[in-house]
Amino acid sequence: NNKKKQPGKKKKKKKKKKKKSGAAAKGTPTQKAEGRMLNEGSFTDYYVAHGQTEPPSIPVVNLFRGEDGHGDATNTSLPPFPEGEIQEHPLESNVHRISSAELRQSERMQTNLYAKLRHASEVHRQVRHHAQSFIKPGIKLVDMCERLEEMNRKLVDEHGLDRGIGFPTGCSLNHVAAHYTPNVGDETVLSYDDVMKVDFGTQIDGRIIDCAWTVSFNPKYDPLLEAVKEATNAGISAAGIDVRLCDVGEAVQEVMESYEVELDGKTYPVKCIRNLNGHSIGPYQIHAGKSVPIVKCDDVTKMEENEIFAIETFGSTGRGYIVEDMECSHYMKNFHAPHVPLRIPRSKKLLGHINKTFGTLAFCRRWLEREDGGSATVNGLRGQQEKYMGALKNLCDVGIVQAYPPLCDTKGCYTAQYEHTLILRPTCKEILSRGDDY
């Protein structure tokens, strides 16, 4: 598969910095992606073809026609936001959809929604491709997250709850499957033998793109990564209008569990992590009520027209079952938070900060400790929260905020994840976050 960098093949020299205002002159991508299990022919600087600089510096909204209300919708010299991958809906009952003029007309009423989703998706693609150029053994995880999040803020043109980061950057290692991001003071360094799930989000007007891939450097993990990547693609293929959730889970499990991986002379079957799921996504609501299983089950709930889903699968060399463990970093205000009278002034203050800065989007402790408290637009440089842990615990205890600790399989095992966001349009499904990388 994708080989490690050959000696003698020096990095091509960087493109000259272009003017920052509008799009730069369109360039030709030259930096071949080196990450394992990224698609053949993927370039970390693919975005120069859209007029982006290398490294990226132009908000994505300035490269495309802003049909989502965030850019210049009248500028016909710019292309519209790129469409995701189009697949037909499965099931005999859906064959008419792809060519139905009536359904196409109903899609035209949704142009604004599709533009927001495609805008957020293009930001995600550009940010993650750039990240694929600097995620290497030896990088401190906190530095990696901060670089990725800074680029996310820049390219999404962060503006409080209108547009910004969808949720904290997950960089869970090895037996930790999800919901780990470094807290301040965490000095963990990425090593050659680690298997890291990079899971981050972008949002435009609350329309969240949730998309993840797995980073590893040692080729011995390739079968694990391939199993999960192919299982996610199988889940995407199986999804569609009127499809039962249990049928998606069965399709995922069949592919995932056809793989095994040999590590240090021992062969492990790849197992689905059976208590992790994909999920529907609503405005400002990352988990909107429907769960997409990744194993065979008896949930006959159907997917419906216009729903948005994150299809994510997790494979493990361990027992295939996770529990909460380790220090918590991820938190989120409950979407249906109760109105609780708060008696502690610090708790009131922190809740006020959470409401205006994150709303019901997930956040992490690192962000509370930034000078801007998580958003320069909202707080300027006076947002930093101090001595907030007691208040945060209080908000969790009364049910206003939920803590999301890291999700761990057995210590010593390895887990992998791939995830895409798709929308079930009336005529087809659009895999919004698909890129040339995965």
Structure at a glance:
This protein is α+β, with helices and mostly antiparallel strands and 438 residues long. The protein has helices at 101-108, 111-134, 141-156, 222-238, 245-256, 345-357, 365-368, 376-379, 389-397; strands at residues 85-87, 163-173, 176-178, 195-204, 207-216, 260-263, 266-269, 271-272, 278-280, 291-292, 308-316, 323-324, 330-333, 363-364, 401-404, 407-408, 415-424, 429-431.
Beta-strand residue percentage = 15-25%
Sheet bearing the most strands, described? 7 strands, antiparallel
- Please provide the count of β strands: 18
| Percent range of helical residues | 10-25%
In DSSP terms, counting alpha (H) and pi (I) runs of 4 or more, how many helices? Answer: 9
**Structural classification:** alpha+beta
Q: Give the N-terminus to C-terminus distance in angstroms.
A: 14 Å
Report the C-alpha radius of gyration, rounded: 21 Å
Average pLDDT value?
94
Low-confidence runs: 2-21
SSE arrangement, N to C: EHHHEEEEHHEEEEEEEEHEHHHEEEE
Give the overall silhouette.
globular
Oligomer state of the chains in this structure = single chain
